[in-house]
Each structure stands twice: as C-alpha cells, then as structure tokens.
Amino acid sequence: MDRYKLLKELGDGTCGTVYKAVNRENYEIVAVKKMKRKFYFWEECVNLREVKSLRRMSHPNIIKLKEVVREINNELFFIFEYMECNLYHLMKERQIPFSEEDIRNLLTQVLQGLAHMHRNGYFHRDLKPENLLVTNDVIKIADFGLARELSSMPPYTDYVSTRWYRAPEVLLKSSTYTPAIDMWAIGAVMAELFTLCPIFPGESEIDQLYKICSILGAPNWSVFPDAKNYAQLANICHSQILPVNLADIIPNASWEAVDLISQLCSWDPLKRPTAEQALQHPFFNIASWVPRPMHDPLQNKPEYTKTKPNLDLNLWDFDSKPDDCFLGLSLAVNPGVSALEMGPSVSGSTRQDIYFCSNFQDHPEQSVFWSLFSPCRNGTTPPVDPSLSLSFSSMTHPPIGVPHSGSALQLCSQEY
Question: Looking at the domain assignment, is residue 42 inside a domain?
Fold first, then answer.
C-alpha cells in the first residue's frame, strides 16, 4: 500500500471503510476499500464473493476492481476505479426531480450492467442508491459483498439488501429466491428517481410489508409457497387491501414509466421482467422515431398528389373501464418534411407524407412518428388512393416487458 496515499474517507460500511486515494507513481485517483477483519491466508482473499464476482465481470456499468493488496500485517485492501459520488447523494442534493430523459439514461446503464451480471451467473442482492456510483452521466453498479452465484444451492441468507429495497420474498424469509429480487430493487430505485423519496420506506420488516401492501394491495397467497413467516403478512392483510394507482403516487412519471415500475415491483417474482426484458419496455423507446429512407423511393412516381387519403381509425377498449384509456392519438397530413424537421430531406420528392403521431398526454417530446406510406418493390407507388387502417385491439395476457394496458398496435396500408 506504499504506492497509494489516502486522501480522505468516503464512507464506512459493515465490512470495510472506503477512502479516496492517489497512486503515487502515476497520480491516478482511485478508491481504496480497507476491510475491517484480517485475512491470514491469500486463499481467503481470492475466494471472497466480491473478488470472485468482479474478476469474472468486465462491463462499462460495473465498477472495476483494479487490484487486491494484502499487507504483511494481514490487512486487506481493494483498489477500485474512482467515482465522484453515489446515486443517494445525487438525489439528496437535488432540489427538483430528475427529468424522465435523465432517468431513462441512468436506468438504461444500470439495467445493461445488471443484464451482464445475470448472464455471467451472479445476482447482486444489495441494489440501492448508495451502491450505484456516478461520475458525470455514467453510472456503475458497485459493492458486490452480498453477490451470489446463480448456481449456488439454497437456502440463501435471510438478510439481503437494505430494507427499503428488499423484495417481498426476502421479507417473508423464502428459502429460495432468484435474480428477480434485483429487479424489485430496480423498480423501487426507479420510483425514487421520480419522487426523490423512497416508495416503500418501512421502519421494520413488518412495517415494510405493510408499506408494500398499502400500494400494491394484498398479494396472491400462492405466490410464496415456501415462505416461513406468513403470519406477519396475514396480520397485515386480515382485510382486503386494494392497490392504489401508481400514477397518483408518481404524478410526474409518464404512463410508460408507471407501467414499468408496476411490472418491476410485482408481488410475483415470475411476473417481473428480467433486465434484458426491461430494456425492451416502451419506456426506453418513447422518444424514438422511424425516419424515412435516405434514398427517394418515389422519384419516378406518377402524379397523384392531389388525391386525398382515406383514413380509418379504429380504437377498441383495451380495459374493462372506458376511463382507463390513457393514450391520446392524432393523425396528421404532413405538407412538407422541412416544417417538422423529421428526417433527412429527399431530393426531387413532391410527395405528401402521412404520419401517425402517438402524442401521450400532449407531451410533444414523447411523440413517435411512423410513415404510413410504403413503396412498392420496384420503388414506386401506384397512382391510387391509399386506404390506411390504424387499430388497437385488446390483449388479455400481456407478455412480460410490455405495457399492462394491453394495447396492440396494428398499422396496415391497403391499395384498391
């Protein structure tokens, strides 16, 4: 450790104390974690879960373990890359909530790191804002002291993660649990990014279960077949507790964000999306749009620009209650691409384009545009009136990772 000069203490935990330090040789700033207990054999050091897991994982959104140092006095030090702060401090210092775009950027990185971790056979078990480190716009998962291999045999440790981010199956002392506990924690962190307050701030395990029931409602009792303390949950749910509308608790979140949180924070671990499935959720694609091709598919089209398109919009109920339809729709004829600045210009084209605009709750920054005209195989469009059909149909059982509203979008262009 003579190569490192400790500058200041950054934090003190159960297993060790973290310092900001500088490498005397190359002046690189690093983070040094000094373990509190002594290690008398090198085999003990390399078999630590934190060391084993980080040695197997290399990802831009997972903290990098640079070096492990064992001193003559049997003190053990981990040398990590340095990050400026953690997500908890970032939220604590903010006066206003994060924008949805900021949240999308942070969660994309965390889920990518988490997906890499799960693919490599580990789950974290202690995801919380304090263990998500941030420098500028980059966020990384850290503190793998409670990480466990997916192949390890149950029963697992009862106590994992900080209480506010602990999944129900852990609170109910289920002897087996899966990486779905990480996904629950991500859902709780995501909700907190919108409100800057924990969504389930329980003061004890029983209060934690009560806080969850107060928002999600009473669970299906068959979800946790091997839980050991049903009595605690039974005491809370002696009467029917109905779920609340998450949109009322997180009013500044979009419908897509609320839907993703509700999926991640599902009582049933099997209904929570994996990290890879969560990344496919519409929340991460709200601001995307599909541009027109770079080439001009209508360069040799016949003259038919004066004909008016026949638009047919069909919207069926996708919930039992008509008031639950939240999606605002609008159809527009675009007289010129330059007016909307949508996509590259196409030389020589006098065509009028038809666009479908999904403009949820009048937020133009969340609009998605699709061109509804498709060229023929030879690159031209016949001089006939296009008939466009846009339909939403009900979906009884939506797959994991898609909105629970069950809206299935179907676009078709027919020519007569």
Answer: yes
Quote the pLDDT of residue 229.
61
> Has residue 294 been placed in a domain?
no
Low-confidence ranges of the chain (pLDDT < 70): 152-161, 225-239, 287-416
Supply the range of the domain harboring residue 62.
Answer: 4-81
| Per-residue pLDDT tens digits for 192-243 | 999 999 999 999 888 898 899 899 988 877 777 666 565 666 666 656 778 8
pLDDT at position 328, please? 45
Q: How many helices (H) and strands (E) does the chain have?
A: 12, 16
DSSP-derived secondary structure letter, 407: -
What secondary structure, in 3-state letters, does the chain show? Answer: CCCEEEEEEEEECCCEEEEEEEECCCCCEEEEEEECCCCCCHHHHHCCHHHHHHHHCCCCCECCEEEEEECCCCCEEEEEECCCEEHHHHHHHCCCCCCHHHHHHHHHHHHHHHHHHHHCCEECCCCCHHHEEEECCEEEECCCCCCEECCCCCCCCCCCCCHHHCCHHHHCCCCCCCCHHHHHHHHHHHHHHHHCCCCCCCCCHHHHHHHHHHHHCCCCHHHCCCCCCHHHHHHHCCCCCCCCCHHHHCCCCCHHHHHHHHHHCCCCHHHCCCHHHHHCCHHHHCCCCCCCCCCCCCCCCCCCCCCCCEEEEEECCCCCCHHHCCCCEEEEEECCHHHHCCCCCCCCCCCCEEEEEECHHHCHHHCEEEECCCCCCCCCCCCCCEEEEEEEECCCCCCCCCCCCCCEEEEEEEEC
- Which of 81, 100, 129 represents a domain boundary (last residue)? 81
Counted domains in the chain? 3
Q: Are 182 and 59 members of one domain? A: no
Q: Are residues 167 and 63 in the same domain?
A: no
Same domain? For 267 and 323 the reply is no
Question: So what's the pLDDT on residue 159?
Answer: 52
**Structure tokens that stand for 129 in this block:** 């804002």
Catalytic residue IDs: 126
pLDDT at 157: 54
* Residues 230 and 318 both lie in one domain: no
| The domain boundary residue, chosen from 220, 252, 285 | 285
pLDDT of residue 100: 96
Do 64 and 106 fall within a single domain? no
- Domain presence at residue 301: no
My answer on whether 107 and 10 are in the same domain is no
